[in-house]
Design goal:
There is one protein chain. The chain has 252 residues and is α/β, with parallel strands linked by helices. Helices cover 33% and strands 23% of the residues. The protein is built from seven helices and twelve strands. It has a six-stranded mixed β-sheet with strand order 1-6-7-8-10-9, covered by helices on one side. Strand 2 (12-15), helix 1 and strand 3 form a beta-alpha-beta unit. Helix 1 (25-37) packs parallel to helix 2. The protein is globular. 33% of the residues are buried. Bound molecules: manganese (II) ion.
Length: 252
């Protein structure tokens, strides 16, 4: 399922995997600086995992308030904000999107006309088809019935359930090989074919790179956010590049 989006004009920025959390305040500071810089752009896409955890729009923690305010200020300044779900913040909902003035894309894949060609946007976890255990968990957590049941519980109960889930996921990840946590080439090829695209931008794997395929395809992977740097993608209206954002001296 992909969502068609209208042609963007001007500069477009793409970020993912900020994993914002109270335990890493420097990342929030870096993100706030980036959101200032993003005011110069026409649009910003957040390709999932903005937050380390999101347990419902009614359970926003105080830690996230500055980012929520900065996102609202960004859209108020006229920048288009697009949100996609990651595997951590898939419960981001319409209330949150409305609050910050964003458009929430619930589909796993979006096709964005960017310059001369359509570019496929996705979080990236759907490409990691080698991790069968994760894909089974994903199917369960994305089930609308499971989600409405979960969101009907009290915020305190949700926190407890999520902590238990994360604990299990940490144990599972520790026992997995590096290869299984990366994208599968066949999944990349079929995503290109299914959407009629030859370029894609995703995150999730925390392996930022600009992969150029022999058949002329291109897969730009944006990075996860560290205390002092992050890799993001930028389309200036003509060219797509993978850039680095640094604390204090971010290139404009
Ligand atoms: Mn992810």
């Amino acid at each position: 399922m992909s969502d068609a989006v209208e042609e963007a004009s001007g500069e477009t920025l793409f970020i993912a995997d900020l994993h914002l959390d109270a335990s890493r305040p420097a990342v929030t500071t870096l993100a706030l600086a980036f959101l200032e810089r993003a005011r110069a752009a026409a649009s910003l896409w957040i390709l999932g995992d903005l937050f380390e955890a999101w347990l419902g729009d009614d359970a926003v923690t105080e830690t996230h308030e500055p980012v929520v305010a900065a996102l609202g200020a960004l859209t108020a300044s006229g920048v288009e904000l697009h949100l996609m779900h990651g595997n951590r913040d898939f419960l981001l909902g319409e209330a949150f999107a409305a609050r910050v003035g964003a458009r929430l894309h619930r589909e796993d894949e979006c096709v964005l006309p960017l310059g001369a060609e359509p570019v496929l946007l996705l979080h990236g976890d759907t490409l990691c088809t080698g991790d069968l255990e994760y894909q089974a968990l994903r199917a369960r957590l994305r089930d609308p019935a499971w989600q409405s049941q979960f969101l009907a519980r009290s915020p305190v109960e949700r926190v407890a359930a999520a902590t238990a889930l994360r604990e299990r996921s940490r144990e599972a990840v520790a026992g997995k090989s590096g290869g299984i946590m990366d994208v599968e080439p066949e999944a990349v090829t079929s995503a290109f074919d299914r959407n009629g695209c030859r370029a894609m931008i995703h995150g999730h794997t925390h392996r930022p790179a600009d992969h150029r395929g022999a058949s002329g395809t291109r897969r730009v992977v944006v990075g996860d956010w560290h205390d002092a740097h992050a890799r993001y993608a930028r389309h200036d209206g003509t060219t797509l590049t993978l850039e680095t954002w640094r604390a204090h001296r971010g290139a404009r």
